[in-house]
Amino acid sequence: MDSPLLRRGESADKRCCRGLIFLPLGILAITVVGHILGGSINDSVFNGENKYSDGIGTYNSEIVESEKGVVAADDGRCSEIGASVLRKGGHAVDAAVATALCLGVVCSMWSGIGGGGFMVVRSASTLQAIAIDFRETAPLAASQDMYEANLTAKDIGPLSIAVPGEIAGLHEAWLRYGRLAWKSLFEPAIKLAKDGFVISPYLGQSLVSSTEMILHDPGLRQVFAPNGNILQVGDTCYNVELGKSLEAVANQGPQAFYNGVVGEKLVKDVRAVGGILTMEDLRNYTVEITEAMTIEAMGYTVHGMPPPSSGTLGLAMVMNIFKSYNDPDATKGNLGVHRLIEALKHMYAERMNLGDPRFANISNAVSNMLSLSFAKKIQEKIVDNTTFPSDYYQYRWSQLRDHGTSHFCIVDAERNAVSLTTTVNGHLGAGILSPSTGIVLNNEMGDFSTPTNISPDKLPPAPTNFVQPNKRPLSSMTPIIVTKDDRLIAVMGGSGGMKILPAVIQVFLNYFSLGFQPFSAVERSRVYHQLIPNVVKYENLTCINGDHVEFSAKEKQFLEDRGHQVVAMDAAGAIVQLVVQNFEDAIDIGRKGGKISNNQQDFGLLTAVCDPRKNGNPAVV
Ligand SMILES: *[C@@H]1O[C@H](CO)[C@@H](O)[C@H](O)[C@H]1NC(C)=O
Ligand SMILES: *[C@@H]1O[C@H](CO)[C@@H](O)[C@H](O)[C@H]1NC(C)=O
Ligand SMILES: *[C@@H]1O[C@H](CO)[C@@H](O)[C@H](O)[C@H]1NC(C)=O
Ligand SMILES: *[C@@H]1O[C@H](CO)[C@@H](O)[C@H](O)[C@H]1NC(C)=O
Ligand SMILES: *[C@@H]1O[C@H](CO)[C@@H](O)[C@H](O)[C@H]1NC(C)=O
Fold this sequence. Notes:
The protein folds into two domains: 394 residues, Gamma-glutamyltranspeptidase, small (S) subunit (Glutamine Phosphoribosylpyrophosphate, subunit 1, domain 1, 4-Layer Sandwich); 100 residues, Gamma-glutamyltranspeptidase, large (L) subunit, C-terminal domain (Serum Albumin, Chain A, Domain 1, Orthogonal Bundle), CATH 1.10.246.130. Helix content is 35%, strand content 17%. The protein is built from 21 helices and 22 strands. A seven-stranded antiparallel sheet has the order 1-21-20-15-14-9-8. The chain has a seven-stranded antiparallel sheet with strand order 7-4-3-11-10-2-22. Strands 16, 17, 18 and 19 form a four-stranded mixed sheet that branches. Helix 5 packs antiparallel against helix 6, helix 15 packs across helix 17 and helix 15 crosses helix 18. It starts with 17 loop residues before the first helix and ends with a strand. The N terminus is likely disordered. One 2-acetamido-2-deoxy-beta-D-glucopyranose binds next to loops. InterPro entries: GGT_lsub, GGT_peptidase, GGT_ssub_C, Ntn_hydrolases_N.
């Protein structure tokens, strides 16, 4: 059990033994994948037999290594499709398009072309990182008081649907960086939708827990309960209409969705059940592209999304608080966990002042969250032997819960990188699948606050995040790319709504501050706090792969001694995907024939990890 996977003498804190087993398996997987999959996408992805039947398949490792390129997605089939695009010479962005489309088919519970997301792309040739915001937008007919009569309608049903951005976002990214034909990137997803795909264990579990919602909606029933019974793990699921919609967008471009036949059918379906979406909404949808927001954390440079994402700012604020301790050991041990929880509570208090910067003046909150002097003041309010009631954290607005999502990381042979988080918000979004297009519709309106939404904490909702036409709701999604001295070091992000930020922050600390190896950094048990309710949740759960993730009784006691109310959670909170590049075994790519970049960019060994809490598996080129 001594620690090839634990870096720099980290040994006391080994919660994860599985990682030790996985390094060799990971190396094995590279060889196996390399041999079996050669150049073609199709064989192993489509004859699902090796995946969920015998449990010994190509995808059976949550960690892989490669010198050439990696894809780490929530579903091994989609990682493999992304890797196949890289093998054909595609840019990381080409692979991202194919991977996202695949996820929208085999994981349509969480993401798809009826949703939207955030994407950070870093180009290896320009070293520039850009932020692509294709988050869903409030329809033109939306208004601040639209949920006055029925607050539930914000979170579920036709009025919860915001204008989808997924196709537009993927297309904008592809226009800038894509090398392969747009159409070719759709082929694998179309095939999966039309010819069927096997229900994965995680999806199977989630379908069961959404039984009522599925049986209630004719569209969802048609896809997920075609014979009246919810499909089970191992069953084949078909979504032929989605295949046709994808085909139309493949052939005609995004206008098929935003100003053509797919959009028209979609709008008709939505309006038939009482929604307010119009063709004008679709025609008017725009993708927002800016430079990535760049912060310093633990001596690294982090490139992420600006608002309406709260991800980069949240990470910055917590890292600045740790920096204020002026002590490299500030993050360590049980005391480090206590300080993290306190920092998260302060961060969540500030976060609710954020919103869509195109509609609300959030400059104060943004500068606070980025400010070292603000962080220092907060750090001085954190006490090592105690926690406090919620009002100590001076929050003003009620907390909003968001959900979601799917995250993947891609790095290609040139070290272009993509970090992409995509979502339909809640599980199965609005609970509506448009029958004529096969598209699951998002319920992103639920991420806005509304004036009548006085939550259990009895606080008013945050005005910066009120509904307005064309506005985008506040988000927790945190796709990031980490560099140091212009070299790519890591790509990461997570899914799981409000739990994304705590999860990404903990994996970041595990890897960059506490010295855990990549797999352990992801698998290690996590704590969650969102200020309201004033409760720490800790993981004590068994992953899909059988690994047990447990916070120890000692750790729990340590927190209880400080007055925390501590509660176990037996289901995964958030899911994190991580890719790191290690230069200790730097590769001389020139010698291998592929002189790729004019910059003095080094090429290290890429390690890709998928979170064992969900059944994702990474793939290599
Ligand atoms: C409120 O909205 C929900 C979701 O659309 C719906 O199911 C429910 O019937 C509505 N309630 C009322 C009183 O209209
Ligand atoms: C279309 O969207 C833009 C912002 O994205 C907005 O300024 C404009 O008013 C919208 N068009 C209509 C007709 O509302
Ligand atoms: C936004 O608010 C800040 C302070 O709260 C103020 O200094 C600034 O002028 C405002 N910006 C705009 C565009 O109103
Ligand atoms: C925390 O420590 C301070 C002294 O540093 C002490 O005054 C206080 O009583 C302690 N609080 C608790 C809850 O132990
Ligand atoms: C975790 O759950 C197991 C049962 O599955 C229980 O025996 C153990 O005490 C729990 N540990 C903690 C710290 O809650």
